[in-house]
Amino acid sequence: MANPLPPFAFFFLLCLLLATPSSTSSPTFPIPINSDRQSHLQFYIHDKISSPNATAIKVAADPNGSRASATGLHFGSIYVIDDPITEGPDPNSKPLGRARGFYSVSSTDGSDLYFTVNVIFMYGIYNGSSVAIVGRDPIIEKVRELPVVGGTGIFRLARGFAFMKTHAFDTATGDAVLFLEAYILHH
Ligand SMILES: *[C@@H]1O[C@H](CO)[C@@H](O)[C@H](O)[C@H]1NC(C)=O
Ligand SMILES: *[C@@H]1O[C@H](CO)[C@@H](O)[C@H](O)[C@H]1NC(C)=O
Ligand SMILES: *[C@@H]1O[C@H](CO)[C@@H](O)[C@H](O)[C@H]1NC(C)=O
């Protein structure tokens, strides 16, 4: 996929050089609006539905059973997730943090999710900083675009967008590995 925005040629490492450690102390006010930084983040989300140690659990479903679905997911189902995120597609690669939130099956044909997570970083100077990603996830499309709507710590005032792809999907268990690439402006 071609990079649609050449000005975002900043990578995580560069962000690490520019960013100031997160602090819960009060920021100076007014917040200078011209100090936007850019970060390009890439990581993998491991969405494990199967036991043992599932990190995505179904907490709600249509009480009247399942209607026809092209995807195996049924309208009305809600899954709460606490998925590990890692640097590479291997679940044993460097842990970066967790994706915590939920997704619900929001189209009657089971093809479209409402996906809302806080991506919480847990290493180095990023430890404790987070970004909020909220949007639609039409899972049968190869690339889905989701808005980045906010953040904390290093990612205060975050706004941007993320591309999400299904890197691997186990049809027997429903377990998925997602690749997520985010382009973020932040304070
Ligand atoms: C599940 O979690 C337990 C407790 O953390 C651990 O001992 C076990 O190895 C895990 N099992 C799998 C299959 O990951
Ligand atoms: C479930 O289906 C029955 C029969 O079609 C209907 O009467 C009932 O209202 C439905 N309940 C829900 C919660 O949709
Ligand atoms: C992240 O911060 C927590 C709480 O402040 C601390 O317990 C943990 O060791 C830190 N982890 C890393 C990898 O720095």
From TrEMBL:
Coiled coil: none
Predominant cellular place of this UniProt entry's protein: secreted
InterPro entries hit by this protein: Allene_oxi_cyc_Dirigent, Dirigent
Classification via PANTHER family: NUCLEOPORIN-RELATED (PTHR21495)
Listed GO CC annotations: apoplast
Function description: Dirigent proteins impart stereoselectivity on the phenoxy radical-coupling reaction, yielding optically active lignans from two molecules of coniferyl alcohol in the biosynthesis of lignans, flavonolignans, and alkaloids and thus plays a central role in plant secondary metabolism.
Protein name: Dirigent protein
UniProt KW keywords: Apoplast, Secreted, Signal
Family: Belongs to the plant dirigent protein family.
Record localization: Secreted, Extracellular space, Apoplast
Any one GO BP annotation for this protein: phenylpropanoid biosynthetic process
Signal peptide: 1-25
UniProt subunit comment: Homodimer.
